[in-house]
Recover the amino acids of this structure.
């Protein structure tokens, strides 16, 4: 885009300079090269500062309990997998596997259901939009703005009355409703990227709906569907409040399992860290894979 | 709404529609268009709107599940109690303090980081990835790490580092902190700022990268200072992204439950409204009271959400106009 060479000194430009703001001359103009080094150093320092808790969590999870709980910290202590063995219950007998499987079930199935509902809806809001489609979009958005806590008691009572308390499939339905608005917003913004000309061309060529979907819409929408799925997966995997209220012994998810560490685990720091690493791992992978789309999901597709 | 109608005719078959179509056929076409939307719409109405109606109804009832005999209509009693009870008053204040401070601090930090990351430097991709990490740790796990690995007064990283630094200078008396006891709300706020700054940074970075560079280059050529460019070009462009980040952040942070639950379990005046409601119905079994508090949260959120909707709408219109 740039036709300028920003490093070229312009201090020799004579006369008064037009500026949008203060009227300074060339001498004070920034030198992009030097500025970037300074920015780079500052950014790296801050990045490391922000990453320290995460890196510390990972390092501590590979330490023995005695090395983990020291003051000053023993950064170079020998590495061990003891904490992971402890977390997976080989020594304590309490296995996190049921809760991890519950989390996977809730996240994967709710994501699939969300996509099944959101893709047709997004189609009706973008490719062949219904009348008043903006109103519908804002209805979806407004449901996302209602705090979960304002609906959780009736949901609890309903679950209790129909015998769905501590049932993972009820939680799946809750997660579908939690993620559906986000998914619709995201999918709509992805489907909007399908060029209108191509849709019209397909129509003129006499392509049916299914053929148009397969040949024109799907190729453009596929990465968007993948991103939407990842975001829905992350949100379901992270959720605590609904899971804590609606599940218990049988259907408890991984975050609920981790709340078992909230108090009285002070002496098992390495185990706590190992648990945090294991539970966060799927989200870290999914999140790094969908970095750019993450914003789009969180901002409901409003920012690209 | 002009955009909406423009779009309808831009796409699809309304253009090709013969003028002698009967009304019935038109209606059939409309239903064909609506059909793919309906499952999602109906599902969402049932699963999100009906429970809230339930909450609204229960909020006017005297209902403690431990004493079912006294269940009955209560009028505005629960609302009066929510607004006068010191516990709920504290929770309302805590919610506001927590939300405002976390949003402002993470917005400012996020803006600084976005401006830094907008420049090219060595390892920018990796630095960005490191910065996103806090946002990707499962919230309960993140809160556990802050509580046990970072803030613990005996062996947490902060006190450990203080001990280490002081020992470098040969001192056996390093200052030690206990933020979770001395300033528990601050501890929660710090952990939330840590978690939300990456979100703000990502939104603002997206905003920065959509900035039209030609005006910036023109300003540079005209000799504008970096500050002038930032103040007169970047900031106005970023305004709606700042608003969007702030308002979405506010909506998510008002609802925060994980950090309060994990770090302090609502102790020492750190219970925000979501936690207070959870406690009121889950442990105290005061269904009516909890529901009234829930309705109060919704009313507060509507106020914030109205602004959020307006911001999202302006971005949305821009996007739709393209």
């Amino acid at each position: 885009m740039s036709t300028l060479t920003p490093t070229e000194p312009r201090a020799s430009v004579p006369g008064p300079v037009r500026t949008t703001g203060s009227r300074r001359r060339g001498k004070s103009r920034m030198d992009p090269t030097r500025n970037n080094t300074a920015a780079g150093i500052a950014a790296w320092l801050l990045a490391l500062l922000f990453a320290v808790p995460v890196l510390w969590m990972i390092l501590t999870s590979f330490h023995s309990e005695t090395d983990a709980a020291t003051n000053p910290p023993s950064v170079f202590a020998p590495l061990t997998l003891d904490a992971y063995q402890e977390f997976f219950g080989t020594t304590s007998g309490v296995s996190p596997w049921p809760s991890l499987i519950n989390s996977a079930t809730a996240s994967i199935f709710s994501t699939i259901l969300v996509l099944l509902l959101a893709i047709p809806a997004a189609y009706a809001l973008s490719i062949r939009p219904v009348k008043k489609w903006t109103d519908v979009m804002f209805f979806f958005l407004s449901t996302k703005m209602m705090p979960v806590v304002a609906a959780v008691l009736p949901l609890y009572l309903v679950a209790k009355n129909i015998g769905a308390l501590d049932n993972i499939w009820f939680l799946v339905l809750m997660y579908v409703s939690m993620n559906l608005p986000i998914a619709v917003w995201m999918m709509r913004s992805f489907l909007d990227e399908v060029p209108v000309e191509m849709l019209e061309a397909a129509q003129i060529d006499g392509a049916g709906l299914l053929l148009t979907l397969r040949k024109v819409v799907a190729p453009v929408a596929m990465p968007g569907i993948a991103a939407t799925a990842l975001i829905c997966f992350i949100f379901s995997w992270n959720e605590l409040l609904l899971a804590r209220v609606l599940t218990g012994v049988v259907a408890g998810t991984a975050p609920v399992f981790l709340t078992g560490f909230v108090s009285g685990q002070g002496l098992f720091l390495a185990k706590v860290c190992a648990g945090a690493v294991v539970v966060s791992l799927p989200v870290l992978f999914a999140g790094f894979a969908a970095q750019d789309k993450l914003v789009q999901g969180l901002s409901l597709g409003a920012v690209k | 709404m002009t955009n909406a109608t423009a779009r309808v005719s831009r796409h699809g078959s309304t253009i090709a529609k013969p003028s002698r179509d009967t009304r019935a056929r038109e209606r059939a076409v409309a239903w064909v268009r609506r059909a793919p939307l309906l499952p999602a719409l109906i599902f969402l109405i049932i699963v999100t709107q009906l429970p809230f109606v339930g909450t609204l109804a229960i909020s006017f009832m005297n209902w403690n599940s431990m004493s079912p005999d006294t269940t009955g209509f209560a009028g505005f009693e629960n609302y009066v109690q929510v607004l006068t009870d010191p516990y709920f008053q504290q929770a309302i204040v805590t919610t506001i303090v927590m939300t405002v401070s976390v949003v402002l601090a993470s917005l400012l930090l996020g803006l600084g980081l976005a401006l830094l990351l907008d420049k090219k430097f060595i390892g920018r991709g990796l630095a960005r990835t490191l910065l996103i990490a806090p946002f990707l740790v499962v919230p309960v796990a993140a809160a556990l790490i802050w509580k046990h690995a970072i803030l613990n007064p005996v062996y947490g990283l902060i006190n450990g580092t203080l001990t280490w630094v002081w020992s470098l200078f040969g001192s056996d008396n390093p200052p030690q902190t206990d933020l979770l006891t001395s300033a528990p709300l601050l501890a929660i706020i710090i952990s939330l700022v840590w978690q939300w700054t990456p979100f703000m940074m990502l939104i603002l970075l997206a905003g920065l990268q959509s900035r039209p560079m030609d005006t910036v280059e023109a300003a540079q050529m005209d000799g504008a200072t970096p500050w002038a460019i930032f103040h007169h070009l970047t900031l106005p462009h970023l305004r709606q992204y700042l608003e969007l980040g702030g308002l979405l952040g506010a909506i998510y942070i008002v609802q925060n439950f994980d950090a309060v639950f994990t770090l302090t379990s609502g102790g020492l005046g750190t219970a925000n409204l979501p936690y207070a409601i959870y406690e009121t119905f889950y442990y105290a079994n005061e269904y009516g009271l909890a529901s009234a508090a829930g309705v109060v949260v919704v009313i507060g959120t509507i106020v914030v959400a109205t602004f959020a909707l307006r911001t999202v709408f302006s971005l949305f219109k821009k996007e739709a106009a393209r």
